[in-house]
Amino acid sequence: MTGDEWPLAGRDDEIAAIEAGYRSLGIQGVLLTGARGVGKSRAAREAAGRLRTDGRRVAWVSARRGMRSIPFGAIAHLVPGVDNGFALLSRLTADLRAAGPDRTVVVVDDAHQLDDESAAVLAELVAQRLVFLIITITAGGRAPEALTALWNGSGITVLPVRPLSADVMDRLIDGLYGARLDVIGRRRLARAAGGNPLALRALVDVGNTAADSPVHGLAGQWLDEAGPVVREVVEVVACAEPMPMRLLETVVEPAAIAAAEQAGLVRVADDGAGPTAHVAPPLSGPVVRFLLTHSAVRGVYGRLAAALRQGSTILDEDVLRAGEWQLKAGTVTAPEHLLPAARRAMARFDLDLAADLAGAARPGTVADLLLARILLRQGQGRRAADVLPARPPSDPEQAAAWALTAAEVQYFGLGEPPYVAERTLESVIQRRDQAETTRSWIQLADGRADQALSTAQAVLSRVDASPRAKAWAAAAGAAAAGLLGRGAPSELLFQQGPVGYGACLARLLRGDVRQAQDMADRGYDEAVAAGARSMAGVWAGLGGMAAKGRGRVRLAASRLREALALSENDGLSGLRTAWTAELAAVTAMAGDAASAGRLLSQVDRRDTWDTALFEPWIAVGRAWSHAADGDISRAVESCRLAADLSRKRGHVAHEAIALYDAARLGAAEAVQARLTELARTVEGDLVAVVAVAARGLAHHDTDALGQATDAFDGFGHTLLAAETATATAHAHHLGGRHTSASLCQERADSLALRCEGARTPLLDRCRLRSRLTPRERDVVLLASTLTTPQIAARLGLSPRTVSNYLQHAYDKLGLTGRSELRVLLGT
Known about the structure:
Elements: H1 12-23, E1 29-34, H2 40-53, E2 58-62, H3 85-98, E3 104-109, H4 116-127, E4 131-138, H5 145-152, E5 156-160, H6 166-177, H7 183-193, H8 197-207, H9 214-226, H10 228-240, E6 243-244, H11 245-251, H12 254-262, E7 266-270, E8 275-279, H13 285-291, H14 294-309, H15 319-329, H16 338-347, H17 351-361, H18 365-377, H19 381-387, H20 396-413, H21 418-425, H22 432-445, H23 449-461, H24 467-483, H25 487-495, H26 501-510, H27 513-530, H28 533-549, H29 553-566, H30 573-589, H31 593-605, H32 615-628, H33 632-649, H34 652-679, H35 686-699, H36 702-715, H37 718-734, H38 738-753, H39 768-771, H40 774-783, H41 788-795, H42 799-813, H43 818-825
């Protein structure tokens, strides 16, 4: 990307201030001051360009370090061939006066590099009101006295150019990467850039391995100019940031650190945990490391690792550093630090680093077990099985750890039957609570929610169960209770554990989409802030499901894509399948049948075995794909299949959801009885409301439909409310109550506006063009006034073909015959 292509963003205020300053006769110029790379020169160039467009003359003066010793060197190009100061000033004065009454705009870039003689001439031209200066100067730089006097005398407006806001940086990153970079990567990139667009460009070039990047050339120049002492500090900080000052001061001299700060290449911050050193933008850790040779990097990490070993003990906060720095130094001098560091990396969800650390700690049973768990989390089940010892160790504690790991590898990693993993768990004695928690998750993934709930409740009732075991048992139990339609147990289970995934899913199944959305948003924000990719991915997926429930199809699609990106390299194949199916559904609801079909093809090609729990979700996603493609009968079949699968497992909450989707697609009469039955057994209000809505759809019952609309709207199910409001309007039309129909349609349209362009058969009931094929539309428009043989003769079709087209159209529009069609068309 060239300099001209790099986007300008977030500098409208500065540019407007420069333009306003030019229009004010009392202002002689504007001084832009700020850190290197923050955008001073770009803002000056843009403002000057706009003033030139308005008819003003513009001249550019670029001050350079190498020319500072040459008198008039910076402005010599303005009057070629004149090198005498007096003659140069006279010639410039005459030329500027002859050019007209408007002041000429003179941009002085990097004024702290300007020679004194050029500065004196420019100051005189300002005094004569012949020029308007736009000056840039790097923070901490010293400008010549002639210019300093101008802003000290209030003739120059000083305008600080601060780092770009987080929102602006996010827009820049989005323009550069789009969906190719997930939210964790975006946050890391934005944090490293520090609001500095030049730093962002340098980081982008690192990602593109642009060895000839002009920005990297500048970075190397700045480091060379700073000198070897400062450069050493910057390189050490770049390899270890955030670098605790207590450690940095054991590696380099405090005076050198102060010099690096003074040069603006290192900054020290204190976030409450003690002062830490960071590379200052536009430099960044990745850029400085990119400029270092491989051997230089190893040497820096060797010094850092040695600095940690100087103390008698390793501080808890330095455990991860103690292992990581040894790996990067290429020499393991303290192997006892590797496994604790690997556990710490795993807790921070840095699975790649955790795997490297655990691998370096091998051979050894403990290292093998830990590496197997890490590989399983990364979705590498076969490698995990290869690493896992073939037989349990003799030590009881290690034997328990082996069985716990082996069971997860067997079921989640290799796809062996669940009874194999459960049989392995039966051998666990030392960590019985963890074994039962693992069993509850296997039972849940296998679709046995009733057993999962019972197992989880047993763990929670144990007085000796560990907090971690209780937390994860509560999550599995809450999800199971939600699937089983038991609202109260899911709430009780959630109160006993901090892991909220299961409770969030339970709320979704119960219809509490607002609470589920709030939970998912909070969990997502916390996980992103912590850099926890897999956690953020799960929360993003749950947030997408909540947004789908609320009818916000664009937000739902965005969150679900984020979930897939964040979980791409994790061992969450079952969840990725669920997110893909949900994404197919919302993509279909947005009217993109082709993309929905491609997503479902991905599900079909995916070689996974831990998706039993989500088979009904896949069937529902397929139903909406069929609906978007116009095949309503197959869509209804898929919904009925999803309901049957859920019913066989006892997942009555999801059965009700699938049945109501069938009702929405035209099969209300066929499913209303079962929904009424479920409303008496499933806890929560949602199933009772969908039963009422299905009855209203089946019988064009305006009272039932109106009641459902109010309830759906109150729950936050905006799309469902928009659909039943549309159906209410249609029922009033059929009954000849056109005023009531108009009022209901107004409400339906208002609700639909909040659904981000969602398209469903119920919403499109009165929109023939959006739901029917061209030929079906032709037939339907003639059918209100012509008989089937007459239509056949006019269109050159057989009467049988016309009848088929009509029946397809009636199915799509929810009509039973010509009389309802005439009411719908107002004929």
